[in-house]
Amino acid sequence: MNQSLAFAAATAWSQPFFQHALLAGTFIALAAGLVGYFLVLRAQVFTGDALSHVAFTGAMAALAAGYDLRLGVFLACVLVGLLLAGIGRRGRADDVVIGGAFAWILGLGSFFLTLYTTSAGGMGNGSAGTTVLFGSIFGLDRQQTLTAVLIALAVTAAVLLIARPLLFATLDENVAAARGVPVRALGLGFLALVGVTAGEATQAVGSLLLLGLLAAPAGAGARLTDRPFRGLALAAGLAVGEMWTGLAAAAWIPQCPPSFAVMAAATLVYAATYLGRPTACRSQTVTA
Question: By mean pLDDT, which of 9-18, 149-158, 167-176 is the weakest?
């Protein structure tokens, strides 16, 4: 039994589909870890959950209209991210706005899925919805992998470029604004990057598990250190490590879906942070 599993793993690692998944997954996880850390710091994790609904609806709308589902995912995630940023105070999307849109967005996705599956082009094709919901990282071809890597690198560069002023605006909006930091523009730009990252991560883990890839590594990084830039690096490193672990587990156990394996690794690492000190971001004790 062990020999057969080892043979299956060795075979998978030598296949182009696995190499594509590993390359794309590495850079997608890197971008998700960086973006997710600021989502945690800015208390905007709920935004990632909203975009998971939007990703599904955008993909189904694109398919129903006869376009590539990835176009719909990216457009929907970026536009809704900007919309939420614009409605929220100072570029921050609040929970009431996001929660109020959940049911309508998901219902709209179901409507578009029905339109697609009953149309001539999508007749009998019920797998598209499953692919969007649970990801298809092992289904990426060479061109899709290259596109994923380039987009993830662009997001990574953009996050690193705005990291310092965004951190300032996150920790103290009023002081940052008084010193000339464009707080609102940063909020809009950041949520646009979240939308792009959500569109990319949907390919890896699917829209249903998208929030886990954005939140779990970042949450673990925030708990392990109270130094923001060290936490940012930890979040990115943990995300990449968890992606590698999940893909390796999926190669070792063919019956294990890669999206589940990645999320299992991320959840276990986050849970393990509770075994140490309570939190790195704990409040300081005030003495008289």
Answer: 9-18
